[in-house]
Design a protein that fits this description.
- By secondary structure, the protein is α+β, with helices and mostly antiparallel strands.
- It folds into two domains: 4-225, P-loop containing nucleotide triphosphate hydrolases (Rossmann fold, 3-Layer(aba) Sandwich); 239-342, OB fold (Dihydrolipoamide Acetyltransferase, E2P).
- The chain contains eight helices and 19 strands.
- The chain has a six-stranded mixed sheet with strand order 6-7-8-3-9-10, sandwiched between helices. It has a five-stranded antiparallel sheet with strand order 13-12-11-14-19.
- Strand 12 (248-250) and strand 13 (255-256) form a beta hairpin.
- Helix 2 (94-104) packs across helix 3, helix 2 (94-104) packs parallel to helix 4 (138-150) and helix 3 crosses helix 4.
- The longest helix is centred in the middle third of the chain and has 18 residues, at 168-185.
- The structure holds adenosine-5'-diphosphate (ADP) and magnesium ion.
């Protein structure tokens, strides 16, 4: 791939004897905004630390902009890293916090002032330059941390759960801000999150990680609509996931024969599983029967948890539809046409 900018090749990362990331392959294009998405402990931070040069790979190779940087020290890589905790200097003003790294690099005078001023402006803090971190909100502090990294003009900017310390409203604001800064500057960005909504909203491409490896790489649309494994399916909201055996649904009691052919997957391979979003389950008609065990009202929709011979089923219908009481027995269907066929169950 000629347009690869950052490449991780069979990267294995360990802490002593504990292997945290194994044989990771990843190619990122210049200017891409890539999200690493996965549950706590899956190796996201470890991967970022290795790209930043803070952790030496046990094996494998990292290439950036045509150069092998696997053994290049952190301060010579030109890779920026923004953490969830902003780690600003509390005694320095916003201006001096942003100027700090540039001064270390020997930038001074008008050049320094131009870079710092434009960096602060780009994150919307022009009128806060003289304040100290203690006089700023969490969101504003996170913007300072972002500006401080951006002014260094890194080849790659790594953001490790940068929004997880912010409240819901600020997160939304900062999300938009990040996207804007990234599009304006064209900086290559890798963004770590355990929040699929955030990844779907922000990224050009999403890398879903599990247990130190990659489960799936794809655009937000691909990850959301065409999960390849049971884990990814469940992670993006296909909460009814089944394994398939000889074309039959594996359920706690029996293999269930399907009434129509299993949907094809675009590789010449039989599907190993099928998954349905609660929204896709048809309630009120169909070949299966379930008993309502729980129901909850969620604004414009109502959710049902059914006890069924297929195991627990989650269904979601418009709140305007007639509601069903706990204990009621309902017919339901898992329409094959709506199912996501999984190429891997595990
Ligand atoms: N300093 C460390 N020493 C030993 N094990 C670690 C260290 N940091 C992380 N790990 C382990 O490596 C794995 C990946 O951790 P991490 O990359 O921090 O996950 P994530 O960022 O996805 O939550 C976990 O099993 C974690 O316990
Ligand atoms: Mg982490």
């Amino acid at each position: 791939m000629s347009d690869t900018y950052l490449q991780l090749d069979k990267l294995t990362l360990a802490y002593g004897d504990t292997v945290a990331v194994k044989d990771l392959d990843l190619s990122i294009k210049k200017g891409e905004l890539v999200a690493l998405l996965g549950p706590s402990g899956c190796g996201k931070t470890t991967t970022m630390r290795s790209i930043a040069g803070l952790l030496n790979p046990a094996s494998g190779r990292i290439t950036l902009d045509g150069a092998d940087i696997t053994r290049v020290s952190a301060n010579k890589r030109n890779v920026g890293l923004v953490f969830q905790s902003y780690a600003l200097f509390p005694h320095l003003t916003v201006y001096e916090n942003v100027a700090f790294g540039l001064r270390l690099k020997g930038v001074s005078g008008q050049d320094l002032d131009a870079k710092v001023t434009s960096g602060i402006k780009s994150v919307g803090l022009a009128s806060f330059a003289a304040r100290k971190p203690g006089e700023l909100s969490g969101g504003q502090q996170q913007r300072v941390a972002l500006a401080r990294s951006m002014v260094m003009e890194p080849k790659v900017l790594l953001l490790d759960e940068p929004l997880s310390n912010l409240d819901a409203r600020l997160r939304l604001e900062m999300r938009a801000e990040l996207q804007r800064v990234q599009k304006e500057t064209g900086v290559t960005m890798i963004f770590v999150t355990h929040d699929q909504i955030e990844a779907l909203a922000l990224a050009d491409r999403i890398v879903v990680m599990l247990n130190g490896g990659i489960e799936q790489i794809g655009t937000p649309e691909e990850i959301y609509n065409k999960p390849v494994s049971a884990f990814v399916a469940d992670f993006v909201g296909f909460e009814n996931v089944f394994a398939l055996e000889n074309g039959k649904l594996v359920t706690p009691n029996a293999l269930v024969e399907l009434s129509a052919p299993v949907p094809q997957i675009p590789v010449p391979m039989a599907a190993k599983g099928l998954a349905w979003r609660p929204r896709m389950v048809i309630l009120g008609s169909g070949p299966f029967q379930g008993t309502v065990r729980g129901t909850s009202f969620a604004g414009n929709v109502r959710e049902y948890l059914l006890d069924t011979p297929l195991g627990p089923i989650k269904a979601e219908v418009d709140a305007g539809e007639p509601s069903h009481a706990i204990g009621a027995t309902l017919a339901f269907d898992l329409p094959l046409g709506a199912a996501a066929p999984l190429s891997r169950y595990r």
